[in-house]
Structures are given as structure tokens and as C-alpha cells.
UniProtKB/TrEMBL annotation:
Transmembrane segment boundaries: 56-78
Residue stretches making up the Peptidoglycan binding-like domain: 181-218
Region Disordered: start-end pairs: 1-45, 365-387
One of the Pfam families matching this protein, by short name: PG_binding_1
Name of the protein in its database record: Peptidoglycan binding-like domain-containing protein
Biased composition (Gly residues): 33-45
Acidic residues: compositionally biased ranges: 1-10
Compositionally skewed regions (Low complexity) per UniProt: 11-29
Entry keywords, A to Z: Membrane, Transmembrane, Transmembrane helix
Organism, as annotated: Streptomyces graminofaciens
Keyword Glycoprotein: no
InterPro entries: Peptidoglycan-bd-like, PGBD-like_sf, PGBDSf
Amino acid sequence: MPEESTEPTTEELAAGTATGTADGGAADADAGEGAGGGGGEGAGGGGVALARRRSLLVTVVVAAVVLSAGGIGAATLVKSPAERAAAQGPPPADVLTAPVEYRVLKDSVVLRGTVRADQTVEITAVSAGGGDAVRAVVTRTPLREGAAVKAGSVLVEISGRPLFALQGTLPAYRDLKPGARGADVTQFQRALTRLGHGTAPDPEGTFGAGTERALAAFYASRGYEPLPARPDGAAELTAAERAVTQAERTWQDAPKGKQRSRAAEDLAAAKAELAALEAVDGPMLPAAEVVFLRGIPARVDRLGTRVGAEAGPGAELLTVSAGDLVVQGRIGPEQRDLVRAGQRVEILSEATGTTAEGTVTTVSEAADQGDGESQDAGDGSGEGSGGGYVVLVKPGKRLPAGLSGQDVRLTVTAGSSKKKVLIVPVAAISAGADGKSVVTVYGAGGKRHRTEVATSTTGDGFVAVRPLGGARLHKGDRVIVGVTGGENAGPDSGENAG
């Protein structure tokens, strides 16, 4: 026979649940009496388990309802930024104002510049040297980069011959020999005199015996001997002297009369030839042995050679800077008409805080295509314009030597109102339907009124104004330059006609 199941059937569970609900104690007693001890206990245990299951089910359902309600509430409260902006509408308008000022109005051009010496000389070898040299070789470099160059200094020595630095503005373009005349001779004589070697009794501009002696003394003070003006001059001079001696003897021995007269003529000719040779013979200053610098002392910027290096014509030797410091900048084509010689310039070194006043001395006529862009401050510099115009600025006072090579800011005053005027930002000017220029004054309590003005000088974002028609405009008044926010943004939005 099949085993009887000990688990209560569905009907029994339902009956037990109903009985337990009506009267728990009676159901327990009736079950014990009808079914025996074991059957009654089994039926009672099933009722308790069912009750626990129902209680758990109810709890789960309630929790689900609560969570669903919370999710709906959260979805109602959380909104995207776009939804919130749409719900709020446009923000309130905010009026932007600026004060009316009373001052001198200047129009400025700002650019970058580099401090450099007034004269920069790149020195190259000119010839193979004098004397017995058969090769041009650097034999001495007495100066190093950054060293000071004094008047009479030896810059470099090539094949045993010196290259001197002397003060002067004219470059050496010819050998200066006895008998030479000109402005370059005057410059050389003055340079020798400053070094303590006077050239008297020679007049300025004439290379005579006094200049010869001064030249020889200068070379000797530096440990060198000057080169002769004529390589074969000594032999020619000796021969001329002998000719004079012979002519004197012939004249003395000649009898009176025609022979003595002719002997006198020959003697005079011999003496004239000797004098001519003496006038052009003597020491000279070769162009290859001197560099004239405008400012002394100068500085060695770069040493481009070394002892033993070849120094043929055109070989790089060294670069020297001389003269007072100046500033060189560059402007773009759109600023060319704004900057001209004579304008005032403010020089500022951001690195050191040094400021100085200067003047524009020159502006190049043609654009410099070498850099391909302008060295301006980044606000309308003409960068990418294919070049720039070189601007040279001369400081009013001597700049500190430490600024050499530094990048500085140049502010050029391109125009000025000359005297104090009422000015407002350019953005404050508006034009009505009648074409008149007006500014809108923003008064107390937000009251606005329009004031017709005449405009004149502009600069740095400002314009000089003069009220018309008896209207008043004072320093410190607030004028509208713009409106932010709202649906109608503009300087004149919502204004009241004045």
C-alpha cells in the first residue's frame, strides 16, 4: 500500500487557517481529540508556518509600494539644467556702466623691443697681414666674450699684426699714409691725441711729419712696429739722398758760368725729388689694422675665432657692440602710419622694473621680410603679416648696461588731446535714427537720459566728447556701455528719453 502523506493537504490548511482564525484554542482541542496526539500536533504546526509566510508576503508588498512612491517623488523633484532654465525664464537685465573721465587722452601703440648697442660691428679679416707673413693665421686673441674694449685695445692679432680699436664714426676704407688728406685723417689724428700722442704741427686733416711721429709712438706703446707706407721706400730714399749729395758736389766743382748754372738746376731737382719721397715715406695705418667704433668703451659680444685658425679675407673674427644703448622694435603694416620719428616712447623692462623715456628716431620705409612677423605685444601686432617695419628708439637718458640684450615693452604715444577733456568708452557712444551721436547717462534709481555729444580724439578705447544743445555731462557721471541678460540686451534697451 502506498504510504500516507504526513503533509497537510490544501483543504486541510485552509480549514486549519479558518479554524485558527475563529478560535485558536478550540481548534487545537478539536484537532487533538479527532486525530490523536500526533495528528493534532502536525496540523497545528502547519498553521503557524502558513501565518509566518503570509506575514512576510504582506511586508514585501508594503515595501514595494513605499519604494515606488519614493521613486515617483524623486523623479518629480530632479530636473535637468535645460528644464530648470526653461521653467525660470530669462534672467533679469544687468546694466553695465562706466564713469565719465576728465583727463588727457592719448592714443598709444604697444610693441616689443630689444635693447642693443647703438653700433654693432661684425669684424672679418681683410687681408693676409703685412710684413713677412705668407699665411693669414690668428696668432693671438687677447679679449674674451663680454670683455670691455678700450681705445687702443688690440682686438685680435693675425700673422703677428694687430687689429686696433679706435674711437671714430667713419669706417676705415683706405690705408692712411703720409701725405694723405681728408676727414678720415682728422678722425685718426683726434684718436691719437686722445691717447696722448699729439700730431702737431700738422694741421687737422693732413698726414704730415707730426702724425708720422704720433703713429710710430702709438704702435711702439702697444709693442708693435708700424708698416712702411712704401715697401721699397727706404731704398728709394737712400738713392735720392745720394743723388742730392752728388748734385751738391757737382755744383761746387763746376766753374762759374753756364756749367755752374746747370749744376745748380740739377741740385734743385735732386732736392725736390728727395722732398717728395720724404713726404710719402714713413709709417702708415693700414685699413686692415684698425676698426673705428662710435662709442668707447665697447663690448665683445662674440668671439668667432681661435688661435691657429685661418684668417683669410672674409673670415669671421669677432662681433663688437659700441655706443650708447638704444631699443629696436618692429611694428606691423597696419601700424605704420601711426608711428613716426619724434614721437615719445615709454620703455619698460618687465624683468627689472626699469622705466625710461625715449623718442622714436627712425621708422624703416620698407618692411623687413626676414622675420615673417611683427614683434608686437600681441594686440594688433601684425603677426603673420609677412614682415614688419623696424622702429629705432633713442632713450632720453643713458640706459643701464645690464639692460643690453633684454626684451622690453615700448608704448609709443601716437596722438594726444594736448589738454584735459571729457572722455567716455567708445562702447558708450550710440547713434539714433537721426544719426546724432549720444551717450546714455545712468542716474539715481536707474533713471536714464540721452545726451547728445560731439566726438573728437580717440585712443586706447576711449573717445573725447563734448555735450551739445545745452546738455550737461560731468566727470563721474555713469554712462551705459552695455546690458547683459534679459531678452533685450543693448546700451539703450528700456531707456527713458531725456
